[in-house]
């Protein structure tokens, strides 16, 4: 099946070969309270089509990192450089609130608790992904273009959710909600997709289904960053892994390079709880 629905202008897979940089994170830091640093001097580049796992023990700073990249949490220091298609650069860590909306459409996020509107139907929930590009009044009145509706239906069909299109979101299973959340994020035409523990509450079958979907999304040139707790999934699906301990990157490389020593440094005694 053609996945051109993921981005109206599909990114050629050759982009992967040229390793096109889409984001540069430089010296990123976050302190919620004075004196306690949750992120400390985080620097890395993100490239088109990568599927990057972020791993580390509970409280390491993984969610804070993704939320800071997306702008839902404000960075305390450092830069998040958006490498735009026209060659220009933009530091999204210093964007005024009114411009943040545009960035969030380029950098979609799937939240741990899905963040669907329970009483709205599935199709409308997906269409709400267009919020950043549609006037507030139009989206409030649920006025979306035929093109948007066709795209939302295409995405739901791709994720086998079309039969539930008119059901209320509150009546879906966890795996179904996650697929709707993915469709909604893709409605924004993001070039980056951030997923905060997208498989945390799913059974093994749905876990694999979601990981396959994330792989297909990255295969289409969208950069995916995903917080995961399963090293097994990281090794099976991801092209790169960033390991965080106490808010600092202590590993950035290929999943095959994850060895016992590294995992012990990352997880300490929690290592026994990994699968
Ligand atoms: N809003 C907040 N105010 C103050 N401290 C916070 C806030 N959010 C997170 N923290 C703290 O920041 C640290 C990192 O939290 P974060 O949620 O980013 O970790 P995580 O690696 O995603 O953990 P988990 O795997 O358990 O989700 C933790 O010590 C947490 O208590």
From TrEMBL:
Domain of life: Bacteria
Membrane topology annotation: Peripheral membrane protein
GO molecular function annotations of the record: ABC-type phosphonate transporter activity; ATP binding; ATP hydrolysis activity
Location within or outside the cell: Cell inner membrane
GO CC annotations on file: plasma membrane
Entry-linked InterPro entries: AAA+_ATPase, ABC_transporter-like_ATP-bd, ABC_transporter-like_CS, ABC_transpr_PhnC, MetN_ABC_transporter-like, P-loop_NTPase
Keyword ATP-binding found: yes
Keywords attached to this entry: ATP-binding, Cell membrane, Membrane, Nucleotide-binding, Translocase, Transport
Domain ABC transporter: 23-271
Family: Belongs to the ABC transporter superfamily. Drug exporter-2 (TC 3.A.1.117) family.
PANTHER family, A to Z: AMINO ACID IMPORT ATP-BINDING PROTEIN, PHOSPHONATES IMPORT ATP-BINDING PROTEIN PHNC
Protein name as it appears in the record: Phosphonate ABC transporter ATP-binding protein
Lineage: Bacteria, Pseudomonadati, Pseudomonadota, Gammaproteobacteria, Enterobacterales
